Amino acid sequence: MSDGGTVGGGDGESGRAARPKRADARRNEETLLDAAAAIFVTAGVEAPVRDIAAKAGVGTGTIYRHFPTRADLIIAVYRHQVEACAEAGPALLASSPTPHAALGQWINLFVDFLVTKHGLAAVLQSDAAGFDTLHAYFLDRLVPVCGRLLEAAADAGEIRSDMDAIVLMRGVGNLCIGADADPRYDARRLVELLIAGLRRSA
């Protein structure tokens, strides 16, 4: 993703002119990743690149310039979604009417992420070390966020206080496994019931 003429020595005007181009490049890449994530959630990680390009409003060549292989694209989407989930936690706590509502919205984002994560496992089946590294990154970034949401809801008296973040996330993940194999199986509905079940009795 190089910008011609912006790399190299010099300072002053040339240095200042490079910054907006780098920012544009980052925004363009984020647009591609958002489009790919949306397509992966609805059509799976093997969805045609042309569908991703159409949603992003670019040509397929642009996608291949950023991500030469499908694995490159899937891994980039994975990391992009992890960061989006991590950043969404505090934002949802600040904007939602209750911590429990924030938790429910965050879990919806997490379910979308899991669709890509399952596809990543298939793509990286021959690279166990690479997958393990990404999984560790996922845990480091998201478990504390989920923990903070649970803590806030428990402190507000909305949910029971004995639920560990990693246990909840693993439970949500297990509910999502195999959801694409049976159209009658509504994983998201079951996850909603799980989150509703965390509420304390009146």
UniProtKB/TrEMBL annotation:
Residue ranges crossing the lipid bilayer per the database entry: none
Keywords: DNA-binding, Transcription, Transcription regulation
Disordered: annotated span: 1-26
Gene3D superfamilies: Tetracycline Repressor, domain 2 (1.10.357.10)
Pfam families in the cross-refs: TetR_C_43 (PF21597), TetR_N (PF00440)
Residue ranges with Gly residues bias: 1-12
DNA-binding span(s): 48-67
Record's compositionally biased regions (Basic and acidic residues): 13-26
Sequence ranges assigned to domain HTH tetR-type in this UniProt record: 26-85
Protein name: TetR/AcrR family transcriptional regulator
Organism whose genome encodes this protein: Streptomyces kaempferi
Lineage: Bacteria, Bacillati, Actinomycetota, Actinomycetes, Kitasatosporales
